[in-house]
Amino acid sequence: MKKMLQAAAVSAALIFATVGASAATTIGLTGSGNSYTGSFTVTHSADFTDEYIFTPTFPSTLVTASLITIGITASENIDFTSVWLNGIELTKTSGAAGLEIAYTAAPTALTGPITLTVNGKSGDNATYSGTFNLTVVPEPESYALMLAGLGVVGYISRRKRKANLTA
């Protein structure tokens, strides 16, 4: 009975530790017009799962994301096992001296809340940093209005040209 209680206590502690470790972090955006950036830095001392959430107020964006870590010693090393941006896996590369990078291969069109999920293995005291770049994409109605305006300008230009030819 005592072993069952100990096992239950250890299981409960692991569940609570996992829930605490995977809490989402909301990242604020800075910028203006159609270009915004959000960034973060985090330090780990064990295997981890991090979740970052951006909630842009504009309807559609092109997003690029990148993560980088350089661990000179084993205790400073982080290996990204997987990195996902709204269900799209980021490209990962490794280099000399513990360099690890994850990035979007191309700008990705996303709407609504944007979630970055990072899974990795860490040394005793390892840090990685991340950056999000968001570019506002005009809505289809904006494109339609712009095309209509160009059509009107073309029509007026053509009428003026015909009027000049007949005069």
Uncertain segments of ≥5 residues (pLDDT<50)?
A: 1-21
Number of strands: 12
C-alpha termini separation: 106 Å
Question: Count of helical segments?
Answer: 2
Instruction: Report the mean per-residue pLDDT as an integer.
Output: 77
- The CATH class of one domain: Mainly Beta
Largest sheet: 7 strands, antiparallel
Radius of gyration, in angstroms, nearest whole number: 25 Å
The secondary structure category is: alpha+beta
CATH architecture type of one domain: Sandwich
What is the percentage of strand-forming residues?
Answer: over 45%
CATH fold category name of one domain:
Jelly Rolls
Question: How would you spell out the order of helices and strands?
Answer: HEEEEEEEEEEEEH
- The best one-word shape is elongated
What share of the residues lie within helices? 25-40%
Protein name: PEP-CTERM sorting domain-containing protein
Organism: Duganella margarita
Pfam family, one: PEP-CTERM
Keywords: Signal
